[in-house]
Design goal:
Helices cover 48% and strands 9% of the residues. The protein is built from five helices and four strands. The strands form two sheets. The chain has a two-stranded parallel ribbon with strand order 1-2.
Length: 110
């Protein structure tokens, strides 16, 4: 059986941000200050890795985001990812973020 992976715009943003940090070696505060100086950074590897996934629209329901933040003590981006999983009935996700383990309707891998 072929498994299909899904992502949302928040995950796209987080992958690109992580890739840029790794590619440049800049710390978060340095990246914000020096990003305009980075010329010619090849983002193709990051975009290619994302192209294997189906991009789901973000179901922006502000009250639901608030509830997820409060119930599971999630950061806003994590709440948006969790809301996407809930909305599209996705019960498993790959993440090294231990915060998702508090969400009772998600199973995190690895």
């Amino acid at each position: 059986m072929v498994e299909v992976g899904f992502i949302n715009p928040v995950i796209v943003s987080e992958v690109l941000y992580g890739y840029i940090r790794l590619a440049t070696g800049l710390k978060p505060y340095e990246l914000k200050e020096k990003f305009h100086e980075i010329v010619g950074l090849d983002l193709n590897p990051a975009f290619e890795s994302l192209s294997d996934f189906i991009l789901l629209p973000l179901p922006l329901k502000l009250e639901e985001v608030k509830k997820l933040i409060e119930k599971y003590r999630l950061l806003p981006n994590d709440a948006l990812i969790t809301l996407t999983c809930k909305h599209y009935r996705i019960g498993r996700m790959i993440s090294f973020d231990k915060d998702f383990k508090r969400v009772d309707f998600l199973k995190t891998l690895p």
